[in-house]
Design a protein that fits this description.
Blueprint (H helix, E strand, L loop, with lengths): L7 E10 L5 E9 L6 E12 L2 E6 L5 H11 L11 E6 L2 E6 L4 H14 L25 H11 L1 E6 L6 E5 L5 E8 L2 E5 L6 H10 L12 E7 L2 E5 L7 H24 L2 H27 L13 H10 L4 H23 L4 H11 L7 H14 L3 H10 L8 E3 L4 E3 L1
């Protein structure tokens, strides 16, 4: 018979960070077979990474309660759903429990471990110390304390099933902090792409503000500021903006030094000489083309006049985008006519060379199709250009194919 799912559901909330750097949570277990509707289980998170969470549960909790609590952590309705393993420290034992392990099997594992494991009466029991670091700095006025705590605190939202991050949400702003690992009070954070540096620095300072429930974190490792990595702690958190600007200066100076060294290298001189030679040749060819078409842009199709052509291009919006298309269309037609006249090339061969050489504006597929559309109306060879262009896309109808948006310009 197919299993419908776990009867236990564990929803956890975040209290704060303890003096040993572990995270203090409060788990609420909902279950249909319990005498009461829900039960509370405080627990510490010693470490977390890649879906594996190491926790401590107080020895005063019963075996059945611990089993229900851990089983409920793997429930689809739990905000910890996404966990693969839980390493549980309980009384004098610790167990590695898989997400595929049911409540009854967890009970059996706990009982077997308690019976077979050696017990040191000198004090090996795991206990919970719920004194979070946040309340080490009380304010005189209780209203001020409540305000500062609310302004700087976060609540636990969920464990992301996709990235395996622990998501925490700021009470006021709704900003999200994604913690990817916890180990000995040192954490790693995944920042969202596009975060502004001031916002990023403000988030980091939250971990070292006495009234934040993140207060107690020892350090944040692998924080990238402008392509250099730094470990952030209470000693340098106030200097992060200075370090960021210093990193910018260092990068800029390094870039200038590398550029200067490259500009004096033999490799650069050879490549630059080739580039100048190519540009010089291109400019000479372009000048010959302009001289060849000194009286008009290109040969107009029968039935069109220079006045109509001028009216068309001057009525177009004076935008850089449209202007580049018109300029490209003119240069393309000029190049093809020049190659056909000067080197006696067939239209197809001249068009193949001219399309590449005339692209001095960084033309896209959409812009090229628009240029073909313009020339198909005004150029002497416009209809031949349109037919040859459409044939590339196996289209024989009217208009001009626009492969960028898979439609036709009619």
């Amino acid at each position: 018979m197919k299993r419908k799912g776990r009867k236990e559901i564990t929803i956890v909330g975040f209290n704060g960070v303890l003096k040993n750097g572990s995270f203090m949570f409060l788990g609420t277990v909902f279950s249909h077979h319990l005498d009461s509707i829900w039960k509370i289980v405080p627990f510490q998170v010693l470490s977390y990474q890649d879906g594996i969470m190491e926790i401590v549960i107080d020895s005063a909790e019963s075996i059945s309660k611990v089993a229900e609590f851990i089983s409920g952590m793997f429930s689809k309705k739990s905000n910890l759903y996404g966990l693969d393993f839980v390493i549980c420290h309980y009384r004098h034992i610790h167990l590695r429990i898989s997400k595929h392990t049911g409540r009854k099997n967890i009970i059996s594992m706990l009982i077997k471990a308690l019976i077979t494991s050696s017990y040191d009466a000198s004090g090996a029991f795991y206990t919970i110390d719920a004194q979070i670091c946040q309340i080490d700095y009380p304010l005189r006025n209780s209203d001020d304390l409540r305000y500062e705590v609310h302004k700087n605190s976060f609540q636990f939202d969920e464990l992301s099933c996709f990235q395996k991050d622990l998501w925490f949400i700021h009470y006021d702003s709704g900003n999200i902090i994604r913690i990817s690992s916890i180990q000995n009070g040192i954490i790693s954070i995944n920042f969202s792409a596009g975060n502004l540096i001031p916002d990023l620095l403000a988030q980091l300072k939250m971990f070292f503000t006495p009234y934040s429930n993140f207060y107690g974190v020892k350090a944040i490792e692998n924080v990238e500021l402008n392509e250099f990595t730094i470990c952030v702690d209470s000693q340098n958190v106030d200097n992060l903006f200075y370090l960021f600007n210093l990193g910018l200066d260092m990068k800029h100076n390094l870039w200038e030094r590398e550029l200067e060294e490259y500009c004096h290298s033999r490799e650069y001189m050879i490549r630059h000489a080739k580039f100048l030679k190519k540009e010089c040749r291109k400019n000479r060819v372009l000048q010959k083309i302009k001289d060849f078409h000194s009286l008009q842009d290109f040969t107009l199709v029968k039935g069109k006049t220079q006045a109509e052509w001028r009216k068309y291009i001057t009525s177009s919006p004076h935008e850089t985008y449209i202007h580049s298309i018109v300029e490209y269309a003119i240069l393309l037609a000029q190049y093809v006519e020049y190659l056909m006249h000067k080197h006696h090339l067939a239209f197809a061969n001249a068009l193949d060379i001219g399309s590449k050489e005339a692209n001095v504006f960084g033309i896209t597929l959409n812009m090229h199709s628009f240029a073909v559309y313009i020339l198909s109306m005004f150029w002497k060879y416009g209809e031949e250009l349109r037919l040859q262009y459409n044939a590339k896309y196996h289209y024989e109808g009217t208009g001009v194919v626009n492969p960028a948006i898979f439609s036709l310009s009619v």
